[in-house]
Amino acid sequence: MISVMVIGALGRMGRTVCDAVAADSGLSLDVAVDPAFADTDVAGGFGHSGVACFASLDEGVDAGADVAVDFTTPDSVYGNLLVCLDRGIHCVVGTTGLSEQQMTELAARAGGGKANCFLAPNFAIGAVMLMEAAKLVARQMPSCEIIELHHDRKLDAPSGTALRTAELIDAEREGQPQPPGPAGDPARGAVHRGIPIHSVRLPGLVAHQEVIFGGLGQTLTIRHDSLSRQSFMPGVLLAVHKVSGLDGMVVGLEKLF
Ligand code: NAP
């Protein structure tokens, strides 16, 4: 039985993760951390019995969990992961918005026989398949743009999924003539690895992404839609089960298949 701590347990993703962990016979939801637990009424209405609830990770980190799952905010995730890794707690990370420098630091801290860190910008299998398909298409049709669409409470833009998709596509285009990128015009999107990314934020959306490839006289569009947060749960549970057997820091759900 793997003992699990959910950090950000009262957020949109955190609540869904708590339900999924509690329903998995191989996992035990033992610790939940969220600032809102400072309100005892909130803690009382959490809906999971026998779980130690804390308002700060400094308290929760000593409660003995094997694996921490972080779905918090771009501002807090890095500090949370440093605390957990230093205490030998394996980390499964869904929070997006970590900088490249922070990722490098985390990779240096993870592993070494202590605690591993698994990070996926998108835990939905369909989104992973979109990225794999985009890599295939990019070899023959290197010109593309990404449109990512999310709910209006999302804090970071572009999304971690869009950034990762651009990196994977760009790696496939290596050695080929690069399509010219837009020259700093904001109306043409944020450019990452030479690929314009357009971010849409609207109520009603969950998490969606299109990659549009253009070639001579044709376009090819690949699209994925997460219609509910349940779409991320099989990937999160897979990572929780596998993280202790990884080596150091691993990025991308496709690495677990
Ligand atoms: P959310 O509803 O705002 O939830 C975040 C929760 O974390 C809030 O309850 C927040 O409390 C809490 N929190 C903030 N700082 C904390 C800390 N230091 N310790 C403990 N809890 C803390 O956000 P969400 O929609 O669940 O999304 C969370 C993250 O997951 C975002 O970065 C999002 O982009 C990402 N995401 C990833 C995937 C994926 O597949 N990888 C899928 C969906 C979402 P307060 O409200 O009091 O600050």
Overview of the structural elements:
This protein has two domains: 2-119 and 230-256, Rossmann fold (3-Layer(aba) Sandwich), CATH 3.40.50; 125-226, 2-Layer Sandwich (Dihydrodipicolinate Reductase, domain 2), CATH 3.30.360.10. 31% of the residues lie in helices and 26% in strands. It has helices at 12-22, 40-44, 57-60, 77-86, 100-109, 125-140, 160-172, 233-242, and strands spanning 2-7, 27-33, 52-54, 67-70, 90-93, 117-119, 143-150, 190-192, 195-201, 207-215, 218-226, 249-251. The strands form two sheets. A seven-stranded parallel sheet has the order 3-2-1-4-5-6-12, with helices on both faces. It has a five-stranded mixed sheet with strand order 8-9-7-10-11. The longest helix has 16 residues, at 125-140. It is elongated, with a radius of gyration of 19 Å. The two termini are 22 Å apart. 40% of the residues are buried. Residues 7-8, 10-14, 33-36, 57, 71-74, 76, 80, 94-97, 120-123, 154, 207, 232 line the site of NADP nicotinamide-adenine-dinucleotide phosphate. NADP nicotinamide-adenine-dinucleotide phosphate binds next to helix 1.
